[in-house]
Amino acid sequence: MRFWALYRRELLIEVRSGVESIIPIVFFIVVVGIFTFALNDLISGDSKVLVSVIWITTLFTSIVSLDNLFKRDHADGTLAVAVLHSDAVLSLVVAKLLAHWTLTGIPITILGPLIGLMSGMQLENATMLGLTLLIGTPTITMLGALVTALLVGLGRGGELLTVLILPMYIPILLFGMGVCHLNIDSAPYTSELLWCLALLSGSITVIPLALGPVIKLSQDS
Amino acid sequence: MKFLPLWMQRLASPQYFFLDIKVWIVWLYVLGVVGLLVGSIWGLAFVPPERLQGNSFRIMFVHVPVAIFAQIVYISIAVAGVVHLVWKLKMADVYMAAAAPVGFWLTALALGSGMIWGMPTWGTPWEWDARIVTTFILLILYLGLIVLRQVIPNPARATTALSILAIVGAINIPIIKYSVVWFETLHQPASIELFGDISIDKIYRIPLFTNIASVFILTAGIILANMRYVTILRNASKNWVQPWIQGRNR
Amino acid sequence: MSSTHLTVNNLHCQPGSQELFDGLSISVAAGETIELRGPNGCGKSTLLRIMAGLQQPDSGDVIRYVEPIGYLGHKFGLASILTVQENLRWTSTLNGAKFDTARAQELLEVFELRTATNKLIQELSAGQKRRCSFVCLLIGEYKLWLMDEPFSSLDSQGEELVRKLIQEHSRTGGSAVIASHAASPLAQAIQVELGIS
Question: Which residue of C has its CA nearest to A82?
Fold first, then answer.
């Protein structure tokens, strides 16, 4: 009950902020577009390059979008009010993560395979791309949120985010992309896929619980 | 903490740590430098050339120990992070601050020596293969740890942030270790496995292990010396530090 | 049955080179209003943040017997692109309470914000925002209020209203700690003078 109310509030804020909320997705489309244009002769139908491009752009998109995750609430003081309600913090954090994933993860999961299909990717490979993105984007959102939370309220957080966050994304990138590549090669990919799921379930277990204390600490400037 | 011997308990307090540890550092430095000289000279001059790689393999005696400890220091920082988060031990924080730059230079050395080794054997200093990339990422992780401490003004917050970053980053270590197995790479498989056969000939083992032990001892010495320095910075306002800041020691 | 809401014991905090508080101990009981006074930089805001748990002292204990705590800082604590009503609703959601529309309307009436119910926070003036955060404090039904300069950006009429409000709050068993620069002290408040040591 409380959770959905908090979730609705996050979405409402995103909707109210208008164009700002769809910038990450626009960024995603533009960057993938530029890549396919620049690597025109490398990308053909079922090439692995397209899969890699989509996966890497997903990482960059998350960096673009995460910067705002806690910034607005910190600036107007609502984050400070929220952390004082210790029993609501977990719901609030999960609501924020879910809202972020709804607005960036889900569109990317749909757009990624769609772009693949438009470039002549086989349906099976596109489906696998969608599946790995479905597993990968929530993991990326959570890992990114954790690192972002470490930097809440620091003036120059934005630039630093890139340096701190990208190393954290490497495992999910390697495995997610690896599954797609193996699938294109018609090689077995079960263990890599299970690793993706392990990273997802590990993140779901730990990160929402860790985020509350981290955000509380961030108020201590 | 009753179960610890007294000398260990003393080390948990900044002041006694600072006073007690100095003798250790001197001995660690002496032992490390001597060991490194013995191992390196042995490895460079007295060991026959390798069957396939000729003389170029001799950089192994630097590359392998340094690469091992580049990873181990990172793991130890993550462990110190856990210790900080769970027990709030002051020295864990000091350890993290002191070890990060040391780990950074070890990783840089591992990458550098690897590039030199790569030129004659692979014909290229740099290849975007999983092992090299992940070691490169280890370098960035260390950089992140160093930079993060500088941008967060509040020390309590900085330490907790560092602990979390180190622990999450530690996911990368097993991937560096096993990327050789998981992904097809140019890099040769690990020569030494903790539980299993050592694929290195007996003649090469002794100088290699001497160097591994020496790099360990030297790294420990440098980190401890660095910890002393961090301790004195943190406690600059305390009375017991004053004689050490103002003049040479008593 | 203890009616203490908050105790602070032997507090030390040294943000720069300067030691604040010097082992300060305060206890806040139900029905008490404590007014913190002192020059700029003596640590009033810091003390309030430590009491709320937003900041950790270097040493000393803070024990909070009531949760959650109503905190009013320099920032208004209102999401600027949500309306007044939506912000109030969020406050009661955080408390796990059902949003009482009638009560909200009543409080908005008292604070002369009735016409602004569906306006975005960013369209309000500073004084109106301040009033709105008081309404949040009341909607949240917090027992302990921590207020940092509550009279800033309020007109004299608003200040009078808030003074009455704090009195009413302490009469009904609530407690408050207030950092203030106001010329006249609050009625019936315990004065705590913080100095620079």
Answer: C94
